Amino acid sequence: MTTLEREAKLCDKIVETISTTFVGKRTMIRKMVAGALASGHILFEDYPGLGKTLLVKAFARSIGVNFNRVQFTPDVLPGDILGTRIWDQKASNFKLSKGPIFTNILLADEINRSPPKTQSALLEAMEEHQVTIEGETLKLEAPFFVLATQNPIEQEGTYPLPEAQLDRFMLKMSTGYPENEQLEAEILNRRISWQKDDPTTEIRPLISGASFRDLQKMAETKVFIHKELLLYISKLVRGLRAHPKVQVGPSPRGGLALLKASRAMALMNGRDYVSPDDVKTFVYECLSHRTLLAVEHVLDGLTSPDVVREVLQSVPVPTRFLETPAQARAR
What kind and span of H or E run contains 191? Predict the structure, then answer.
């Protein structure tokens, strides 16, 4: 068994472990794991009670990293997340009291319940993996990523995330309702067998944080992507920017997100090269939330995924990726 095959099986075990507590779409769980392998931040948008928090907690415990949760509310301040300096009476000086952001996985629960000033506290950490507290810059330990949940903005008492914040999330996904009555009944059945509301406390880590960092490095350095697929990603991004119904299209960060996520998915599939299917797997999750439609088309009921689908169907899929990585590099 090759190294890539072993790592792919390990990723499958992580997905399987999460699935023992979270009853949902396996494809969605695989996408979440791939996003984390790509060192990306992930935003889950859906209604309350659909298992978003349970999903994130199960993932954090399965990969054996530190995990903190912040419940965003209107009265949460930036210092409640980052930390602050407090007066130490015995030492007669100020000491740093680190906030919950100093962790490996930060669960920002219901992030759009807090006003923009509090939301913006995460911007530096998400982009540069560091925070600045009263002029002092502190690095965050790797791996670090934010897994945030938000309720739809139609819900009362929510603040829409600004475009700059949305752009820092590599993926935006939805857990959705159970697909059928069998899955709904399975949720109830598992609750009876668990005899507790939080079964994630029983999850034993499959790997360590250091091993997960090695997986991230492998996705970044060992997975080849053909230049034709790079051009394919570019055409998708630029096609959205040029679409007549789009007011603001994806930034270059959107194309980078699609690149990183597709390489991570190739690793999970046991390959050292990216296929067009790896790219197409993440087109909606990487680009939809970075696509802002003109107001008149939104009023007509058009959505960003509708436009993404149209562009995806219009861009020809490359075929030269089928040559081996060695052949491609020799060209």
Answer: helix 181-194
Q: How many Cβ atoms are within 10 Å of 178's Cβ, its own excluded?
A: 17
Q: What are phi and psi of 102, to 5 degrees?
A: -80, 80
Task: Provide the 10 A C-beta neighbour count for residue 268.
Answer: 25
CATH 1.10.8.80: which residues of the chain?
A: 223-331
What's the fold here for domain 223-331?
Answer: Helicase, Ruva Protein; domain 3 (1.10.8)
Banded model confidence at residue 32, pLDDT cuts 50, 70, 90: very high
Q: Are strands 42-45 and 67-71 parallel, antiparallel or unpaired?
A: unpaired
Q: Where in the chain is the domain with CATH 3.40.50.300?
A: 1-219
Separation between Cα atoms, residue 282 and residue 102, nearest integer Å: 29
Q: And the tokens for 304?
A: 């960003």
- Tell me if 130 sits within 8 A of 137, measured CB to CB: yes
pLDDT, one tens digit per residue, over 49-72 is 888 888 888 998 899 888 899 999
Burial class (CB in 10 A: 0-12, 13-18, 19+), 288: buried
* pLDDT-wise least confident of 64-73, 88-97, 109-118, 183-192: 88-97
Q: Is the dihedral of CA 190, 194, 197, 199 positive or negative?
A: negative
The answer, yes or no, to whether the previous bond of 152 is cis (omega within 30 of 0) is: no
pTM (whole model) above 0.85: yes
Are 187 and 194 contacting, i.e. CB atoms less than 8 angstroms apart? no
> The domain 1-219: what is its CATH number?
3.40.50.300
